[in-house]
Design goal:
By secondary structure, the chain is an all-alpha fold. The protein has 25 helices and 4 strands. The protein is globular and about 70 Å long. Bound molecules: L-captopril and zinc ion. InterPro entries: Peptidase_M2 (IPR001548).
């Protein structure tokens, strides 16, 4: 999801990078020309406008993401154009008020308006129009992206991901072809992206910032200039843990693939089971520390459930033999939808178990839970506040596997955050910062211990042994620890692109230099400037800032620790499961209710007692695994050489 604090402080969902507007373009100037209002009156008008325009903005964006075609792109771009013009006028007016001597809420709202644009738009109407068209086109190109080989059916992201995920069944070359195939989709984006950078930088400068990256760094209730050092500090805390995991993983890949398992000590990009090497969960069969200490095969259990649903539907219909080919397709689809709904309700029950409200009926009728067969959609998961009053939706192409199940828990975190802060005026309807928004659902995922998974019938009752602990820690680390450097490097690349230190003719080289530096990951074959590999990751064409996810992967362990304390948990942190604990639920909801109404440091303090983001909870959680990894890596030459350009 994408939480955008633009104009109206709308916390908008994923593809909503591009927000839209409220009034016809010819009326938008009236905002700038409005009779001089007091700051309080101005903020009240912005809030009122936000309430009015949000449904139109979100509907246009929803259409753009769930019916990709020329018409929806036109509607989406036009809506954005109106919205962004209005937003610019509001930002200009916000800048005219003094920052001192105001009512605290008004001062905060004005501040949020000035730092909240993730898509800074130029004032020049022709350039604004061009920007919104590029934005829609980039999003649509990603959503409709396919790997096509002559004489074969084209494959979409779901199909490519399935090939990569099958790290046991597929060969080195099959995975390499799939990985390279997906990276063809972004080649046509390069020119658009370059222009996109120029246009948003112009908008950023007009807003008083050096470039778009600086706008992004300004949204954290601290000087933008200090933010990079803050992120570096957090990375420094967890980097040794990542390096141990990287080393162990690479050694296992070398055991399996020989020389091909490593590129100068780095992990080949197509071998991690994930297109971007951000989640190594699909390497479980290779990396599982111990056999026979109880299966943690959640994917296997989910697939079985889906097959059982299908079998029941088929039997009710009189058996497969009675069905025509097209009826068979329909019934498969019905099974997919029933399974996706069941998985979503399972996630919902975690939240309601904490005392949070049931999702509104419209959530289930209006969400997109499975991939439609008749059109292109943006499958990348997102959660949407359709208005400012609690109409919420999710957009996903759910498949029965563990990664998707945890993504549902993640998305519902966004949804419950929307519901918790909806009583605020729209300007404060947002996360404390964007990393908080990303961390809500993931904190719940940390509570999905083997005991919890057993309680919902997804794994057998877990063994109690040191080996079982290491297995369970490894499972979590493959999702959480592997992610950390990826969460950092994407915006290191974009910040450089926006500030000009990465020139357009070095886009790809800089991308791989950063992948090498932070992740210790490398492509099997050199990737020249004929490619635009950054564009093959949703958030780049989708213009969603990414440091939020890095922050979330630190914060979620802090949240988890606090909620475990609230639940009276005793024992090692990693054994805590706060499911069904009302005290944890109350504390969490109280934090979420704050929204963006106060600096995040205050909100963090109310939940955790501290005002700083801090990686020590990550280290506390993974202490047993880290010690185990150090032992496994003894005598190995860890580390890698990032080839210098
Ligand atoms: O984009 C997402 C969510 C929507 S906010 C599905 N995530 C990042 C990603 O997929 O790259 C969640 C974790 C990281
Ligand atoms: Zn998210």
């Amino acid at each position: 999801m994408k939480s955008q604090r633009a104009l109206l402080a709308l916390a908008i969902s994923a593809s909503l990078l591009a927000l839209s507007a409220c009034k016809p373009a010819d009326q938008t100037d009236s905002a700038a020309d409005a009779p001089k209002e007091s700051a309080d009156e101005f903020v009240a008008r912005v809030n009122k406008t936000a309430k009015e325009v949000t449904p139109e903005i979100t509907s246009a964006a929803w259409l753009g993401a769930t019916y990709i075609n020329a018409d929806s792109q036109r509607v989406e771009a036009a809506a954005n154009e109106r919205y962004l013009a209005l937003n610019n006028a509001f930002i200009e007016q916000a800048k005219t008020y003094p920052t001192e001597g105001l009512n605290a809420d008004t001062a905060r709202a004005l501040h949020l308006m000035k730092v909240g644009a993730s898509l800074p738009a130029p004032r020049d109407p022709a350039k604004l129009k061009e920007l919104t068209e590029i934005t829609s086109r980039l999003g649509a190109t990603y959503g409709a992206g396919k790997w096509c080989v002559d004489g074969q059916e084209c494959r979409d992201i779901g199909q490519v991901s399935e090939i990569l995920a099958d790290t046991q069944g597929k060969s080195y070359d099959e995975m390499k072809a799939a990985w390279e195939g997906w990276h063809t989709i972004s080649v046509p984006m390069r020119k658009d992206y370059q222009r996109f950078v120029e246009l948003t930088n112009e908008g950023a400068k007009e807003m008083g910032f050096a470039n778009t990256g600086e706008v992004w760094r300004a949204g954290y209730d601290m000087p933008a200039a200090d933010f990079q050092a803050e992120a570096d500090r957090l990375w420094g805390q967890v980097q040794p843990l990542y390096e141990q995991l990287q080393c162990y993983t690479r050694e296992k890949l070398v055991e399996k693939y020989g020389e091909q398992g490593s590129v100068n000590g780095m992990i080949p990009a197509h071998l991690t089971g994930n297109l971007w090497q951000q989640d190594w969960g699909n390497l479980w069969p290779l990396l599982q520390p111990y056999d026979n200490v109880g299966s943690l095969d959640v994917t296997g259990a989910l697939k079985k459930q889906r097959e059982a649903i299908l079998a029941e539907l088929v039997s009710k219909a009189g058996g497969m033999g009675k069905l025509t080919a097209s009826e068979q397709v329909e019934i498969e689809r019905q099974a997919d939808l029933e399974m996706a709904t069941r998985m979503t309700k399972l996630a919902e029950s975690f939240y309601t178990g904490l005392g949070m409200p049931a999702l509104p009926e419209s959530f289930y009728t209006d969400s997109m839970l499975v991939q439609p067969r008749d059109r292109d959609v943006v499958c990348h998961a997102s959660a949407w506040p359709m208005n400012t009053e609690g109409e919420v939706r999710m957009k996903m192409c759910i498949k029965p596997n563990e990664e998707e199940l945890t993504t549902i828990y993640h998305e519902l975190g966004h949804i419950y955050y929307y519901l918790a802060y909806k009583q605020h005026p729209p300007m404060f309807q947002n996360g404390a910062h964007d990393g908080f928004h990303e961390a809500i659902g993931d904190t719940i995922v940390l509570s999905m211990t083997p005991e919890y998974l057993a309680s919902i019938g997804l794994v057998d009752k877990p063994a109690v042994s040191e080996e079982a602990v290491i297995n369970s820690q490894m499972r979590m680390a493959l999702a959480k620890v592997s992610f950390l450097p990826f969460g950092l490097m994407i915006d290191r690349w974009r910040w450089g692109v926006f500030d000009g230190s990465i020139a357009p003719d070095k886009y790809n080289q800089a991308w791989w230099d950063l992948k090498a530096k932070y992740q210790g990951v490398a492509p099997a074959d050199a990737r020249g400037e004929e490619f635009f590999d950054a564009g093959a990751k949703y958030h780049v064409p989708g213009n969603t800032p990414y440091t939020r996810y890095f922050l979330s992967h630190i914060l979620q362990f802090q949240f988890y620790k606090s909620l475990c304390d609230a639940a009276g948990h005793e024992g090692p942190l990693y054994t805590c499961n706060f499911a069904n604990n009302p005290e944890a639920g109350k504390r969490y909801w109280a934090m979420m209710e704050r929204g963006a109404s106060q600096p995040w440091q205050q909100t963090l303090k109310e939940l955790t007692g501290g005002e700083q983001m801090d990686g020590s909870a990550v280290l506390e959680y993974f202490a047993p695994l880290q010690a185990w990894l150090v032992k496994q890596n003894e005598g190995k030459t860890c580390g890698w050489q990032a080839a210098k350009s």
